[in-house]
Here is the input.
Amino acid sequence: MSQSLINKKRFGFISFDSVRSFGASLICILIGLLIGFLIMLFSSFSIDGADPISGLAYLFSGPFTALDPLQDFGNMIFYTVPLIFTSLSVAIAYKTGLFNIGAPGQFLMGTMAGLLIALGINSVGNPVQGVFVWILAIVAGGVAGMLWGLIPGFLKVFFGINEVIVTIMTNWIAANVFTWVFSLDGLKGMVNTASGKTGYLITTSLTGNSTPDLGLGALTHNSYLDIGIFLAIIVAVLIWLLLNKTTIGFSMRACGLNKFSARYAGINDKWNIVLAMAIAGALAGFAGVSYYLHAGIEIQYQSVYQKLPDYGFSGIAGAFLANCNPIGCIFAALFIRYINASGTNLVSVGYNRYFADIIIAVIIYLAGFTSFFKNLLKIHHKNSVNSQPGGKAKVPLPDDSKPETEKPQKGEIR
Amino acid sequence: MNITFIIHATILCMIPLMIVALAGAFSEHSGIINLGLDGEMIFGAFVGCIFCREMINGQVFGASTASSQWLFLLGMIVGALAGAIFSLLLSFSAINMKADQTIAGTAINMLAPALVSTFGLMFFNSERIVSRASFQLSSSVYTNADFATAIQENKILGFFFDEVYISTYIVIALFIFLSIWLYKSKTGTHMRSCGEHPQASASVGINVVKMRYLGASLSGALAGLGGFVYIATQTGTEAESSVGGLGFLALAIMIFGNWNPLWIALGSLLFGFVKCLGVVYSQIPLLASLPLPMYFYNMLPYVIVLIVLILTRKKSGCPKAEGIPYDVSQR
Here is the structure.
């Protein structure tokens, strides 16, 4: 994770570094798909009628081999939105040197606050109020997530308690609080009492506070697509700007690289830890509201306390696949969901939908090797730097873990 | 409501947690953060469960008590082996490729449920593997009739041999042995030194790569064993793509125990006790009379862990070099 704060070599507006990162990610994905193909090839011996070649083709085509490709595509984008938010949540904490596995808890707290507002206020027949209540619910979700993220932040700063243990504990506390709150007698009105439903909440379609979709849902054959994706992209860009273009972001990243030298340089590391956890919590809270405020999504509150939501943990995967780059999080989340979307289609060529999950996991695993692949890609670039007149041809071999931006300096000193 | 039942319930909760937390400590003391405990548990439980299922279906082991206990023992070994093999993914990534260890752990946690569901559907047409194995010791399963009546009449004998699992004793023995081994044996101390300062260890001739492989593999084995013990004692030997987040919880207990086996054991005892209160509170008159819902007791263990952490601020026993890839050239 050693990345320099300043990118040196640039090619117009694209740095060599980012080109290499992209190339390395591409290698990871290709190897991942190759391994996926091999797994499908070997398992085709024990499944009747399984065809690895078309399996691979289905995998590549994501949602587009479904019966209704447009609808599947819309749903894919909708499912991407919370993943972008949780990936951002993990990424910003990681950039500050914190490991946020508390995204599931913050996600649930955000969902709870958002739903309490969106289901508690009735705006049927009043679309303008509906939009305002929706905005209020989104903000409430973010605030609730933020408050939940502040707990590990404060405990880390004031008591020196590892944020990993605190977030694991607060996850389960949040899950129990969630079910507890919606089981209260005063909130009976939010429980769906329709026949055949046990333990479900009503959806926002009944209170008129659902996420506006501006006709996007109808456009994509009644998928779940709504304006959430635009929010996610805007937030990702804002987080990128915060991290890379502001003093606050700089000091946060400085804390992430080395807390002690950041402190020595006059950066308030404690404040940055609290701030990072607050932002991370808010982002995970947004993930919750962006998902559950949609008119068609319902939640079974009664079983929430038994299992943490998957979105929290897959955010870790998204963030690492993106190498914790906020803009990268958008593409990483889209990529994960793209492969996920192929899962259900794989059934028609004999594979079950979990094959897609295996391939995603393999790709995440390979994402750990990006620095290794990046170093492989670096060789040509290095030679060109060192073939200056008078420059010694013999350069000590770079070691894998050193940041590559240090190398040009070595060549210059001589 | 008797006290024996509460103690048994506590131990049931505590045993898998304790051994998996020790698994985490082994890995971290050798210098590798094992975030994949959850995945290794799932995988170990799955393989162990399939093993038991096939052994019973193939009638290698009958329904008689003695043979089912042998099967339990073999299942634990198979689960441990599966966990160890699965953890090689983490070791390879962390040691040979010098990758970020949290990524490999996350990938393992995603890979295990996906593999379990895939192969479950492929070979058994179900995401849930049912083994029909039952390993509980009770008076009806002892072949020696005198002993069977003795454990019913004698309270103390009954406490140790009635409605318990042999895994409890095996895990406790293993826990004590491995803890002493880690701190007192030559290999154990060498391993711990690799988690503190690998370059210094290498300078006195310790093979850091080998030690880290050993630590991570032992960790995987213990996690796989813990996963199998969990399904054998708490879900009726049925494996699925989740162990209820127990791996993450064990990781938390490991940090709670300050990376020290003794505190890990005490921490999991505390956690297990409070957790089992959530199950039995309605049968305790004093607690049942309070107007508190189940969810309160469910979240109590997590809250108590946080409170204890706040009250007992102590020097972190975290191995200094954990999470940092070993690099020979930094010596």
In short: The domain at 64-347 of chain A is CATH 1.10.3470 (ABC transporter involved in vitamin B12 uptake, BtuC). The longest helix of chain A spans residues 127-159.
